[in-house]
Amino acid sequence: MGIVTLTLLVGVFYLLLWYPQYRRSKNHRELMNGLQKGDEIITVGGLLGKIAKIEDDFITLTISPNVDISIQRDSVTATIPKGTLK
User: Fold this and answer.
1) 84: Cβ–Cβ under 8 A, 6 or more apart, which residues?
2) Tens-place pLDDT, residues 13-62
3) Rounded to an integer, what distance in angstroms lies between the CA atom of residue 85 and that of residue 83?
4) In this predicted structure, what is the pLDDT of residue 84?
């Protein structure tokens, strides 16, 4: 009886904690791999901008005319529909 309870507890633990975290990290990885020049993004800090250049680990982000910043690629939270920043 103890083995069944332990197995059930591990199964519930997996479904409630590990699997949702795995899905979030998988979705973030797909987002990082799908970024392209010209995409409009939101960063972890709340900055909105358009991607000007993508390098290995860094992205050059245009946040206003003539203002470019470099951010780490992993700090991108989401993409937004094109034309939102106008």
Assistant:
1) 40, 48
2) 888 888 888 999 999 999 999 999 999 999 999 999 999 999 989 999 99
3) 6
4) 86
Q: Return d(Cα 32, Cα 23) in angstroms, integer.
A: 14
Q: How far is CA 11 from CA 16, 18, 52, 72, in A?
A: 9, 10, 45, 36
Give how far Cα 1 sits from Cα of 5, 10, 20, Å: 6, 15, 29
Tokens 């479904």 label which residue? 15
CA neighbor of 52 nearest in space, from 63, 43, 42 = 63
Is the Cβ–Cβ distance between 11 and 3 less than 8 Å? no
Both structure tokens of 69 = 């910043």
How many CB atoms sit inside 10 A of residue 42's CB?
16
Helix, strand, coil percentages in the chain from 3-state DSSP, rounded to 5: 40, 35, 25
The predicted model scores a pTM of 0.74
pLDDT the model gives residue 2: 83
